[in-house]
């Protein structure tokens, strides 16, 4: 039996709330399964989710969270994979274009921007999970936050290149070495997270760009192609991943 | 004081008693509590208590597939849980007996005053 959209949303929000509270992953899975089972019984009986939450999902999530084990260290194990893949993402593009360089302001500025962004997204996800913001406000915040992130990145990029000369500019073999290192970093993070996404998305983003660069086309064609093809490829990969996930989900329910 | 506030302190004891009757899972516990007239228990409120009991080692759990899809978590009392249930029973007998006596006394006092 399939759960109602409202119940599914509650379970997803509960997971997000407990995750952003740094609770143990195993306990989150267990309690989510347990509540799903209970909600199915309730819905079969024609009763609403309020029988569980007592009317306030926010207070209910809090009471569950207080009874659960903290496991912040468990979540921090994802940090190395995150740092590796973020560094690889920012290094691979310039290296493929043959212009990898290191600048002190950018070297310090980017990690700072990433930390600020992570913190702001954490706040937003928590608010989203506890349902204390309206859909409209949430949408506004999400748009605002992604714009702010882009603005901060561009600011660091501009300030860095305007104020300071790079202390390292890669030669052609240097660029190839950076590409190789980045590919290894993606591979390592994919293994650490046991997920194909960190191989598929960089491949979709950078492989077309690299192929286009080496293609026997005019510079104009290359410019247009490298502006469109990588984004299309990422779009297709994300669509494919979502389709596979959905099919897996249907199969799991049928089993 | 609301019923849910009064229940807070005794819910753990009630759950120990229900689980003590045999291996069971969340939704079934609510049904069993209801069979004994404890219909005022908010269904969700048992889960934070169960999590705490699990952490304190009063119950052990096992996940098994349920007939309707998601895995179901079954609870059983540990030895410490059995001991805690016996201790709760003792405290409850003393407390409920004393409160009963007090209420009876207060009723009689009221009746005499009215005369």
UniProtKB/TrEMBL annotation, chain A:
Record's protein name: Uncharacterized membrane-anchored protein
Domain HAAS transmembrane region: 97-201
Source lineage: Bacteria, Bacillati, Bacillota, Bacilli, Bacillales
Entry-linked InterPro entries: HAAS_TM
Alphabetically ordered keywords of this record: Coiled coil, Membrane, Transmembrane, Transmembrane helix
Membrane-spanning residues: 78-96, 102-125, 137-164, 170-188, 195-212, 224-244
Pfam families documented for this protein: HAAS_TM
Organism, as annotated: Edaphobacillus lindanitolerans
Coiled coil ranges: 21-52
Domain of life: Bacteria
Automatic annotation (TrEMBL), chain B:
Boundaries of every Transcription regulator PadR N-terminal domain copy: 15-86
Signal peptide bounds: none
Pfam families: PadR
Gene3D superfamilies hit by this protein: Winged helix-like DNA-binding domain superfamily/Winged helix DNA-binding domain (1.10.10.10)
Protein name, per record: Transcriptional regulator, PadR family
Organism: Edaphobacillus lindanitolerans
Phylogenetic classification of the source organism: Bacteria, Bacillati, Bacillota, Bacilli, Bacillales
